[in-house]
Amino acid sequence: MDQVIAFLFEPLPFLIWTSLLKTFFVLFGAILPLVSLAVFAERKVSAFIQDRIGPNRVGAPISLIGFKKDISLWGLGQMVADPIKLLLKENFIPNSVNKFYYYIAPKLTMIPPLLVLAVIPFGSSFLTGPDGKPVPMVVANVDIGVLWVFAISSLGVYGIVLAGWASNSKYPFLGGIRSSSQMISYELALGLSVVPVFLICGTLNLTQIVDWQIQNGWLIAPWLNLEFAWWKVALGVLLPISFIIFLVSMFAETNRTPFDLPEAEQELVGGYHTEYSSMGFALFFLGEYAAMIAGSGVIVTLFFGGWSFPGIPDGTATWLPFGLEQSLPATLVWLPGAFWGFVNINVFFAKVSAFIFFFIWVRWTVPRFRYDQLMKLGWIYFFEIALVNIFLVAAVLVYLK
Amino acid sequence: MAIVVQRPKLSLAEKLYLPAVLGGLFLTFKHFLRSLGGKSVTMQYPEQRWDDKLPPWYRGAPTLVKDEWGRERCVSCQLCEFICPPRAITITPEEIPTNDPWAKVEKRPKEFEIDMIRCIYCGLCEEVCPEQAIYLRKDYAITGYSRAEMKHNKEKLYELGGVMPGVVNKWNENK
Amino acid sequence: MSLALFWAFAALMLIFGIGVVLLRNPVSSAMCLVVSFVGLASLFFLLDAFFIGIIQILVYAGAVMVLFLFIIMLLDLKAERARKLNLPALGGGILVLAGFIAILVRVICSEPKFAAVKPALAQSTTNDVQAVGVTLFTQFNLPFQIIGVLLLVATIGVVVLSKRELK
Amino acid sequence: MTEPTPVPAADPYSLEALPQIPFDQILSAQPTLAQFLLVSGLLFAIGLAGVLLRRNIIVIFMCLELMLSAANLSLVAFSRFGLVNGMPNMNGQVLVFFIITVAAAEVAVGLAIIVALYRSRQTTHVEDLNLLKF
Q: Chains A, B: CB contacts under 8 A, how many?
């Protein structure tokens, strides 16, 4: 019995509790607010692009507690109001659905994007563990990071396919079928387009890829750190091609316009989530945005230097702006590192937000592709271009570097 | 005979889509910035209204009008009740007593009801009225919390309609 | 911990594997197989074969099973009807399986080498992506090329088979 | 002089006879090769049972995949337990890699054949495919 008590109350191993802490931070501190912010941004940006105002009323409802007028806060209260509305609606289940898969499908679309985020480094390591090693700001620092991203994001298709199939209805079914073939087609281009990144960095570990980019310049533009080398010039031409293929494939993977054929409103009513209401629908909705955030995180990490920004030091820095560190007492020597670590985390999420804006911006600009155009683009153009790109990058690395 | 429309030959830049996509992105971004600067076309409804921009022929809620001497124009001929396509109008006529100053006309409405849930704003009542007593005015936001509230009675109709001076004064001695 | 995880994942894999066999609906079978493969990949992770494990998820769960689901839905396969049990065949099958498992247990228990506990590695990180790559491109280069040709042949074969009619 | 009471022989069917792991070693206990091989064999048996019992050709195909995966598991287990210079023997893992590749190709061709079969016979039931039976 003493052993059991000792086991239960023994402090958790350092690795486990830091991982739990990081998971909680990523989930509840960053992703969930970012998801609802993205939904709000989608409505606001689409309104602005169409010369409208968008939601601008919902704010703090202080008139409920006796004030005269509400505070509108540019409509930011919509972030909270939308999920509450969806939660409070009736969860209507059609009679003919396959109940088990109907229940489980929304969850299956929500989980993979969150799992993908586990391997993405979101900040510099400014904490030091008891063994003297820095704690990496990534939930799971695994060697197969990029493969994990592809493997888990490819599981996201099951939710959509099962939702379409279990709804037992024509249009959702067509949406599910379209989605499965679309995702299989674009996974290939997605995987092949980042092979040059592995060739250059020599690793699949996303933390090490970020480290490589800090030393050698961002992969989208390797000349950024102003060290001239011919191989950097050549890669500066080849890697943007990789990036464009990856970006477009990411649009197809996350089912965003111009590749949102599974949920094409004009042809398929609502696509795979036609028969869903209330929280089931909300999970599909939020899952799409979570996938968008995960995709943006992967793009930022692979091509845009992750949490690094030229000129901003990482968590090992010992100085503060305006020479503030000289007036610090000796017990606060950790403060500069923590400050810059915090800045790094913010840089990462700023980059992710910029990409979310880009996703939204493209959605309200580019019309939807036709299905045969989509397949042709994936199989005939992207696949071949990505393959040739791998050979060219390999040749550059062998002969110029 | 079928006419085969030749597809236009695309140049390389057009085949790549990307220049066109970028052009579209710049266009939408221009609109985005414009709206961000506050130049969107949206009218903020409950505060800003159409009212002063409505054309004179606007067909809002049907109302009853009085002439400039405060006399009810309606003579309860019930033509509007007859013509109304959704049968929204109900008129209860009443004889005008002989000691009334307007006794030259035989009838006036005792009760005049328009069910605004039924009304389709077609304007046929206005057209058919020989006395020009019923007019479609500019009120368009007719709302209420109950069905009873949506039934406009005589007072409400006169309140909405107000006075419409001298158009037809066939039965008017003052003419 | 490792042992507990091993039994947990093995149980996950085996239970859902049984689900593949026993569930009548083909879609349920396919989904059970996906979960079973995820359990198998976890066992690979326990064996420090991270690359193989993730490839297992990527190829099987991510692509092959989606293809299976796609075909099941395309052909609109309904659940298998319950049919009359062919008792001699069933008995024979069970006999074969029981014999197989008995022989398996006998062989595994008879070899003392198999009782070895998982040995510790010389280095803490395996970097098995690099190790597999080096082995693949040096020692097994010819088989690798042959596999490439096989994939090409398979691709052509699938295209030919999927054509509506041969001309 | 009293005789020492004889110690009763351990009951082979008692709880004490089971191999027990001390509580403080639960976190560090490692599985053995035999356990991996046993699980792999059971998975193979399940796959075999599926091939014998099921009549839907697609489900039979899935059970074949299960059997291939069972082989993969034992290969990886052997590779991890037979260390070379303290590191796993990569030959086994490369073989698994080949098996996965070939299996993927096999699935693609097999499913194409099934679709072609379904087009001509409108069934995926193996008992209905008895043209060559006499």
A: 43
Please return the burial class of D113, using the count of CB atoms within 10 Å of its CB with bins 0-12, 13-18 and 19+.
middle
Cα(A54)–Cα(A75) distance, integer angstroms: 8
pLDDT given at position B175: 43
Mean pLDDT over each residue of chain A, to the nearest integer = 82
Percent of chain B with pLDDT over 70: 94
What are the Cα distances from residue A2, in Å, to A245, A248, A256, A286? Answer: 59, 59, 56, 46
Alpha helix segments (H runs only) across chain C: 2-22, 26-46, 50-55, 65-75, 87-110, 128-138, 141-162
Q: Do D32 and C117 touch (CB under 8 A)?
A: yes
Q: Which fold has domain D32-122?
A: Helix Hairpins (1.10.287)
Sheet holding B151-152, edge to edge: B89-95, B107-115, B151-152
Do residue A155 and residue C127 have CB atoms under 8 angstroms apart?
no
pLDDT, average across residues D19-27: 59
Q: Which of B28, B34, B42 sits opposite A365 (nearest CB)?
A: B28
Among residues 333-362 of chain A, which lie with CB inside 8 Å of chain B? 361-362
Enumerate the domain spans of chain C. Answer: 1-81, 84-115
B136, part of any domain: yes
pTM given for the model: 0.82
Are the beta carbons of C129 and A204 separated by less than 8 Å?
yes
- pLDDT at residue A186 greater than cutoff 90: no
Find the domain containing B151 and state its range: 70-162
> Lowest-pLDDT range, A80-84, A104-108, A387-391?
A80-84
pLDDT over 60 (residue B171)? no
Domain positions in chain D: 32-122
Task: Enumerate the residues of chain A whose CB falls inside 8 A of the CB of residue D24.
Answer: 3
Q: Mind listing the pLDDT tens digit for each residue in C45-85?
A: 888 888 888 888 888 888 888 888 888 888 877 776 666 66
Residue pairs spanning C and D at CB distance below 8 A: 242
Residues of A in contact with C27 (CB under 8 A): 101, 162, 165
Residue B45 lies in a domain: no
Which residues of chain D are within 8 Å of residue C83 when distances are taken between CB atoms? 55
> Is the predicted pLDDT of residue C166 greater than 60, yes or no?
no
Residue in chain A closest to C30 (alpha carbons) equals: A158
Establish if A20 belongs to a structural domain: no
Looking at the 3D structure of chain B, how many domains does it have?
1
Q: B114 - beta bridge partners?
A: B89, B152
Q: Partners for D (CB, 8 Å, 3+ pairs)?
A: A, C
Query: How high is the pLDDT of residue A1?
Result: 47
Is there a domain that residue A307 lies in? yes
Tell me the C-alpha distance between D69 and A18, whole Å. 35
CATH hierarchy code of domain C1-81 = 1.20.120.1200
Subunits next to C (3 or more Cβ pairs <8 Å) are A, D
Contact D24 A3 (CB under 8 A): yes
Segments in C58-127 forming alpha helices (H): 65-75, 87-110
Chain A nearest-CA distance from D2, in A, is 38
